[in-house]
Amino acid sequence: MAEVKWIKLTTDMFDNRKIRHLRKLPEGNNIVLIWVMLLTMAGKCNAGGMIFLTENIPYNSKLLAEEVDFDERVVELALKALHELGMIETDGDYFTISNWKEHQNVEGMERIREQNRIRKQNQRAKQKLAIEESHVTSRDSHATDIDIDKDIDIEKDNTVSIDTVRSTKVQPVIEEWNKLNLQKVISVNAGTTRNTLLNARLKEYGLEKVLEAIRSIDKSSYLKGQNKNGWTVTFDWFLKPNNFIKVLEGNYLDKGREVEQDGEDRKGETTDQYYARKYGIFQSNGSK
Asked: How far apart are CA 190 and CA 156, in angstroms?
């Protein structure tokens, strides 16, 4: 991704009346240094002079102090002085450099933003084309090339992993799960939590291990509802990372005798209570 690598500072910056005034204040030289650092941060954000950690997370004085490596007290003093002199503005929780367009190469930054937009558009178009070429079975499988182009939404950041949408990956998982005769899985739709979790498990363990874990459920009476709460494993529960690895490692397999022989003092617990405590399937109130 193209980034802003420079900002403009004038050679007579330190002759500016505001800068001279700031330098006379307590911590004045540090305030001026913080001002320059804010300018560079605004350049990195490349958002019309706004300064933020992410587009959804604004800086507060504590976060900003950690970023510029100054004591929070000095940062608060700097922000107060800069605000009083009209050098920064606040828009809700966000800091903005005043008159940013007058001080920076706005045209150059706009060009960078446009380059980024075009790059993302081309990347999404390539991903869309790759998905179509993989012969994915979908309701749009007979779409024309024109229809495919229309489907490309350059404003969306959530793209679909080819490994997840391919029928060679997803369909065997769905078919194997439905053999268990539990809650039936109809589909794994793009953009859903289910899609994200399945994609993660496939990348981490591979298709064969995912299928192996599903098959092991058939050997677990506990996961199939034979417990005091009548709870039955669901596909979405199974896909969560902490749950998946326990199923894959066989922690829920029928092994009543092993439970008795594992050397752990059960203190009068029933098998259900033992599993609930050991594997954390239920909370203390019995809810999943």
From this structure: 13
Judge whether 159 and 126 are in contact, CB under 8 Å.
no
164-202: buried (b, 16+ CB within 10 Å) or exposed (e) per residue?
bbbeebbeebbebbeebebeebeebebeeebbbbbbbbb
Can you state the angle between helices 193-205 and 207-217, rounded to 10 degrees? 110
Residue 28 is encoded by which pair of tokens?
């004045």
Rounded distance between C-alpha atoms, residue 78 and residue 237, angstroms: 50
Please give the Cα distance from 81 to 282 (Å, whole number). Answer: 55
45 conformational bin, left if phi > 0, alpha if psi -120 to 50, beta if neither:
alpha
Predicted confidence (pLDDT) per residue in 196-215, tens digit: 889 889 988 889 999 999 99
The two tokens of residue 147 are 């229809």
* The overall pTM is greater than 0.70: no
Cβ atoms of 34 and 74 within 8 Å: the answer is yes
Total count of residues recorded for the chain: 288
Confidence of residue 217 (pLDDT cuts 50, 70, 90): very high
Q: 26 is written with which tokens?
A: 């307590």
* Residue in this structure with the two tokens 């504590």, named with its chain if needed: 62
Pair type for strands 88-91 and 50-54: unpaired
Taking a C-beta distance cutoff of 8 angstroms, is the pair 183, 235 a contact? yes
- Geometric angle at alpha carbon 70, from 66 and 75, rounded to 5°: 95
User: What pLDDT does 248 receive?
Assistant: 93
pLDDT in tens, 16-46: 999 999 999 999 999 999 999 999 888 888 7
